[in-house]
Write a structure and sequence with these properties.
By secondary structure, the protein is α/β, with parallel strands linked by helices. It contains 16 helices and 13 strands. Strand 11 (288-293), helix 12 (297-312) and strand 12 (321-325) form a beta-alpha-beta unit.
Length: 405
């Protein structure tokens, strides 16, 4: 994906330094810099006249741009051109300024003196966000295959609602129910107590944390950290020592997600139920974000808390989140329609029934891939994969096996 970058910098020295760094970024297409806020807004207005697609994905706003204050410029660009990711360039990257910039609509903050790694991470994140907004505005579904793969996150509203189980089944459904050459990665970002490895009975010396300190995640480096499972799904597991999860910082997570997106057609991310910098980045940049709940008051309240927090931190809007209802029983008093009204999220058409007995043997054996394909839980989760475009619907899969299509 080529990212068009428009620098808005009044200071000539900073403009030259910024131009030199932008020229080194991979897949970057720098546009001619503008010297002040008026020129910036006029340029964006002219570019947007024909189509949103003509706008740059990223605008870099220097704090001394003038004549408007930088935060006011950020707010104006975010309001008038919502499909543009704005990054503020500042010599004072404090927590207070970061909060104010996010409140104004910025997608990131870059400190001066400029760092290549920091600039690359912020530009990549803002560019991916802008692309996602444009797909949403155009009513397009993200393509599940091809260069620049699709990222789907699965988060639990609270612990124990079944997020990891759903993540495993979506990855398996995508691998078995899609094109034969599709590459699928299951990434465990539940860094404190991730269970993806246990679900597949995998003990591997490498984990997500081993990639956190690497400045250039080459295909070879990535391959050494990934476990190629017999199912055809590649696994990148959480560290066995939960405290190592702290090594996966915001910049490290952005770099990791950029690397895996470029190498796999589909990346399914298990985010667990606890927010950390890595899961915040994953949910923010995901093409599809799922939030799993059970149909009870405590879990639905947890959904509400989660989506409100995502909104406050400008990670994701409630309306861009898909809630999945797990363990729905005949006696459940809270129905999917009510959950949608309470939380402001969309609720998946496919609901997953309560049937623990179906799961117990495969879970205990670490053979989650062996769930009975006739079981209602497995069938519902694979039908959900079809609903969100990760796999063929059950009827199409059946016809293909019988040679009818």
């Amino acid at each position: 994906m080529t990212t068009r970058i428009l620098p808005a910098v009044g200071d000539p020295d900073t403009a030259r330094a910024l131009a030199a760094l932008i020229g080194q970024l991979p897949d970057a297409a720098p546009l001619r810099a503008v010297p002040d806020s008026g020129s910036l807004l006029d340029t964006l207005a002219a570019l947007s006249h024909a189509s949103v697609a003509d706008l740059p994905e990223v605008v870099l706003v220097h704090e001394a741009i003038g004549p408007l204050p930088a935060l006011e410029v950020v707010r104006e660009v975010a309001l008038r051109f919502p499909a543009v990711g704005v990054v503020l360039v500042t010599a004072d990257p404090t927590a207070g300024l970061y909060a104010a910039a996010m409140e104004s609509g910025a997608r990131g903050l870059v400190g001066v003196p400029l760092s290549y790694d920091e600039l690359q991470a912020r530009v990549a994140a803002a560019g991916q966000w802008a692309q996602g907004v444009r797909r949403h505005l155009g009513g397009e579904e993200p393509a599940p295959t091809g260069a620049g793969g699709r990222v789907v996150t699965v988060s639990g509203a609270k612990g124990g609602v079944g997020a990891t189980l759903l993540a495993t089944q979506l990855a398996l459904a995508a691998r078995r129910g899609g094109p034969a050459d599709r590459t699928v990665l299951l990434l465990d970002l539940d860094l404190l107590c991730g269970d993806v490895g246990s679900y597949f009975d995998v003990q591997f010396r490498r984990s997500v944390a081993d990639l956190a300190g690497i400045s250039d995640i080459t295909p070879q480096v990535l391959a050494e950290a990934v476990y190629p499972h017999e199912t055809g799904v590649s696994l990148l597991i959480a560290p066995a020592e939960g405290e190592r999860g702290e090594e996966v910082t915001d910049p490290a997570a952005r770099q990791l997600l950029t690397a895996v997106r470029s190498r796999y057609d589909l990346v399914v991310v298990d985010c667990g139920s606890q927010m950390n910098p890595a899961t915040a980045v994953a949910v923010e940049t995901a093409d599809t974000a799922l939030l799993v709940t059970t149909p009870d008051v405590i879990s639905v309240r947890a959904v509400n808390r989660m989506v409100r927090m995502w909104d406050r931190l400008q990670i994701r809007k409630a309306e861009n989140t898909l809630t999945v209802v797990n363990r729905l029983g005949r006696t459940s008093h809270i129905q999917p329609q009510l959950i949608s009204r309470i939380t402001g999220t969309r609720v998946a058409r496919e609901v997953v029934p309560a049937n623990f007995r179906e799961l117990q043997e495969a879970q205990d054996a670490g053979r989650i891939q062996d769930l009975d394909h006739r079981g209602p839980v497995r069938r519902a989760m694979w039908d959900l994969a079809a609903e969100i475009g990760l796999a063929e619907a059950a009827e199409a899969r059946s016809n293909r096996r019988r040679g009818k299509g």
